[in-house]
Specification:
By secondary structure, the protein is α/β, with parallel strands linked by helices. It folds into 3 domains: 84 residues, Arc Repressor Mutant, subunit A, CATH 1.10.10; 106 residues, Periplasmic binding protein-like II (D-Maltodextrin-Binding Protein, domain 2, 3-Layer(aba) Sandwich); 105 residues, D-Maltodextrin-Binding Protein, domain 2, CATH 3.40.190. The chain contains 9 helices and 12 strands. The longest helix has 28 residues. The mean pLDDT is 90.
């Protein structure tokens, strides 16, 4: 017995007439009658009583009708679920992020836009450093990851630019340089730097050291911080100063000030990483949300410029 047999049976039962059911189904009346007879032979019981005006259900037909409606509904739901999954509208998406990327407003905004566009997709979030997130991507434990790749590219990984973010100096509020509106990095040559260890934040650590080297000095590394929020807390406790992505300035810890960096622009790159040639519809949908956000931002910038 096939689903089409059940559809034929349901149409005849609803119409009470084989001719009208055939017209509704878009097939000839004789073939439909043959299909109904074949179904009755397969089941070994009559499903309809033939009358001069049409057909009525037998007890066997009445029993089959309720199950037929349920089975056809289940089949339709199965088709719809498969189609939604194929379009990336259901299932789960594993998304990674670095501690510093989470502070950038673009990251929660993109996650929010995706959830609004695809409410049927569950999100699993994982925090890690750039190296860890890349490994998780390669091992398929993550689908996508917000990270700071620096100027690097990675084999088998596609990178999509999110923002090129400026950096700021964070100082204790009582520091002699705290009243400046801008600081050149060379003014920090004698300071003790509070940074996350290289193994905890390899890219950000390297970017800060490279910026100091370009400014002509080797930074003095002081008390390490286990995570980015701890950097600000240790600066507040006057363990030293630091350089952080500008978005971190939303951490309004008491006893610290954030100051722009003068001269050469010091920036850190925030990108979304995925596996190259990832055929997942969910991943493609998230990347499409990113593309639409970038196009919207470009349109706003163009409008402002006009």
């Amino acid at each position: 017995m096939e689903l089409r047999h059940l559809r034929y049976f349901l149409a005849v039962a609803q119409e009470g007439n084989v001719t009208r059911a055939a017209e509704k189904l878009g097939i000839g009346q004789p073939p439909l009658s043959q299909q109904i007879l074949a179904l009755e032979r397969e089941l070994g019981v009559p499903l309809f009583r033939r009358t001069g005006h049409g057909v009525t259900l037998t007890e066997a037909g009445t029993a089959l009708l309720a199950d037929t409606r349920r089975l056809l509904d289940d089949a339709q739901h199965a088709v719809q679920n498969a189609q939604r999954a194929g379009r990336g509208e259901t299932g789960h998406l594993s998304l990674g992020f670095t501690a510093s990327s989470a502070f950038n407003p673009a990251v929660p905004a993109l996650i929010r836009d995706f959830r609004n566009a695809y409410p049927g997709v569950g999100l699993t979030l994982m925090e890690g450093n750039t190296t860890q997130l890349l490994v998780h991507l390669e091992e398929r434990r993550l689908d996508l990851a917000f990270l700071r790749p620096g100027l690097h590219s990675f084999t088998g990984i596609a990178l999509y630019q999110i923002v090129n973010e400026p950096m700021k100096v964070v100082l204790p509020a009582k520091h002699p340089l705290a009243r400046h509106r801008k600081l050149a990095l060379s003014q920090l040559a004698e300071e003790s730097f509070v940074l996350m260890p290289r193994e905890a934040s390899p890219t950000l650590h390297s970017e800060i050291l490279s910026a100091c080297h370009e400014a002509g000095f080797e930074p003095r590394l002081g008390q390490p911080a286990p995570q980015l929020s701890s950097v600000v807390s240790l600066v507040s406790a006057e363990f030293g100063i630091s350089i952080v992505p500008a978005s971190v300035s939303q951490i309004r810890a008491e006893g610290v000030v954030y100051i722009d960096i003068a001269g050469a622009s010091v920036r850190t790159r925030l990108a979304l990483a995925s596996r190259e040639n990832d055929g997942s519809a969910k991943t493609a949908n998230f990347l499409n949300v990113v593309r639409q956000a970038r196009e919207g931002a470009a349109d706003m910038a163009g409008g402002a410029g006009g």
